[in-house]
Amino acid sequence: MRIALGVEYSGSGFHGWQWQEGVRSVQGELEQALSRVADRPIRVQCAGRTDAGVHATGQVVHFDVDVFRPQRAWILGANVNLPADVNVLWARQVAMEFHARYAATGRTYRYEILNRMTRSSILRDRVVWFHYPLDEQRMQRAGQCLVGEHDFSSFRAQACQAKSPLREVRRLAVSRFGQRVAIEIEANGFLHHMVRNIAGVLMTIGRGDQPEAWAREVLETRDRAQGGVTAPPQGLYLLGVDYPAVFGIPDWRQQRVVPG
Length: 260
What we know:
Blueprint: E1 2-9, H1 26-38, E2 45-46, E3 55-64, H2 71-81, E4 86-94, E5 106-114, E6 128-129, H3 136-143, E7 148-151, E8 166-177, E9 180-187, H4 194-207, H5 214-221, E10 236-242
Parallel strand pairs: 3-10, 5-6
Antiparallel strand pairs: 1-3, 1-4, 2-3, 5-9, 5-10, 7-8, 8-9
């Protein structure tokens, strides 16, 4: 049978999602915990691999297993064996046609910035500290040129292995909550470092170092070298993944713990 799980984690203590020899990964911890519940090796597929330091509140994974366990057992059994920085939120038996990555119709990421003069000891691994004043309204206006289907070559990492740079951004919203500025982006898919590169461009504009039109100029060059700096990973969250209703995957928007 095929089981889907919702997973949240703090990325601060991991070398990213993907299993790697000799280092701590989210995938490695989750597979070890699930293998104990199943009493046999478990390998999981995720909706989207995250880099070192990146968090997730709505990651989705699936795995195949030939032993029955109640949904409650997958959740509680996994969490008993998981470290405190990884947690299973829900479990569902799904059709064999479901695939955590390839069945997804959309993903939403959020980039959190602490915008004040001094850093935060409490939020140091949860947000990116930026002490120059940011104009979130300039950032919002500049970012709207990225909405729609575009060639995002200027916003992809040089090591990105995606076959096509075309992606459809369905929504991009910049908002402020006191001293925190958030960039939330929903798209049909993302290229490697795409959100962090967009954040880097919008922060440069928000600081006033570039005009609002620069975002469109960067997009149209289709040249990563013209795209400015890649923003740090600490402020990035995978909020959730969307699927066709037929699969019965819980709506992450009803469960989100990051404000917005």
